[in-house]
Design goal:
The protein has about 150 residues and is of the alpha+beta class. It contains three helices and eight strands, in the order ααββββαββββ.
Length: about 150
């Protein structure tokens, strides 16, 4: 399957399921590649991704930048929203709502986000919990995603 960067499936490719589309998008996204995000688990309505710590991520000292954590949250939520979803004819997905609360700094360690679908409908509502590799809560978020 070939995807363009605008998220449209090539016409000669078989129509993927939501999980297949999520995986293909993650593998083809330059932004995801730049951050080094890694998909660890994907099942209908859930996803887990890791943001590996690198020297390019801190905002001050060794604290992982909130923008990098927010990107992890949004990307993990998108993957969970697509997994288990039916793929529409015209793919025009977007994040339409995003609220994050930062609970504690992630210092010099990988960060892991786990997203789960709370409700599907015209839009998909998701909850995302973020922990450091040490298991300490880093952030919690609510994401609204339109497929």
């Amino acid at each position: 399957m070939v995807l363009s960067y605008c998220g449209r499936v090539a016409t000669d490719a078989p129509k993927p399921d939501g999980a297949g589309l999520a995986r293909a998008w993650l593998e083809s996204s330059p932004f995801v590649a730049q951050l080094g995000l890694q998909l660890e688990a994907l099942a209908p309505g859930t996803a887990r991704m890791r943001l590996p710590y690198s020297e390019s991520l801190p905002t001050m000292g060794d604290v992982v930048h909130g923008g990098a954590i927010s990107s992890l949250i949004d990307t993990t939520a998108a993957a969970a929203a697509w997994s288990g979803a039916e793929v529409p004819e015209k793919i025009r997905a977007s994040t339409v709502g995003f609220t994050v609360d930062f609970l504690s700094p992630a210092r010099g360690q990988d960060v892991v986000a786990e997203a789960r679908v709370l409700r599907r409908g015209a839009v998909t509502f998701l909850a995302v919990d973020v922990t450091g590799a040490d298991g300490k809560a880093v952030a919690t978020a609510l994401v609204t995603y339109r497929l």
